[in-house]
Give the backbone structure.
Amino acid sequence: MVNYRYLGNSGFKVSEITYGNWVTHASQVGNEAAIATVHKALDLGITSFDTADTYANTAAEVVLGEALKGLDRTDYEVFTKVYWPIGKKGPNDQGLSRKHIFDGIHGSLSRLGVDYVDLYQAHRYDYETPLEETMQAFADIVRQGKAMYIGVSEWTAEQLREGAALAKELKFPLVSNQPQYSALWRVIEGKVVPASEELGISQIVWSPMAQGVLSGKYLPGQPVPEGSRATDEKSGANFISRFMKDDVLTAVQNLKPIAEQAGLTLPQLSIAWVLQNPNVAAALVGASRPEQLEDSVKASGVVLDAEVLAAIDAALAPVAVTDVEQTYTVSPKGRPA
């Protein structure tokens, strides 16, 4: 079964393997397969589910809601997000204004078929809305019982500090950040993680397998497999392109004997690696088929010894991205059209 970790300094526990439905539900797979995968996740001990209103332009929330329908609300935790343009994508259908946040939570609750979400997250930082307005809206949503906890995604260390100060003043729990993090993409380690540790904020990390590159299925000098994420624009091909270089793919192949020595598959090794960071509360994993989750959950509870961690670092050091300045490039300076 899957282990649990506290989210930030709160008393709220989440499954350290969390199921995320970006690029799968209402997009990559049919609804029947998506619902079967959610039920498989529950059978395997995953009880935390992450989505966003922008995924498939709100349709992914609908599918997740259908999959969770009829279950005891205390048996699962559901996270969603607000920020990116959705629906008709009008002038107020985006960002972190008070209006869009309230429209967003009401829409998400309706699509998910729940009375509250466990975690409501700012999907990016909104440079065009005063932070005070955003945080006051989140505080009101918590007080109204529509969200239990508040999180953010891809905020810089400075933004986390400012947000945490306002959350403390407004007396609501800001407990998490959701950044990209893997053994190949380590940009949060320099500033974001130290600030989060100081503030009592956990990381819920996405792409622990670097968009599938750390699975080892992409080989240097070889065509990418048909139907893989690298060939599908809907499945984040633009995100994976940064890793699709022969030096990176060669370095990943060098992880195979390390994984074998540890008794793990490459996907298990990559998920276990992010979970060794004590500031990480959960690793987000996706799946287009139920059986894919059977491999992923075996990374829960794995402890990698110092020798294995050193070997991973040595194998990937020439290609791993560690530049903290990358954390300042994620949120658009203006609202996306």
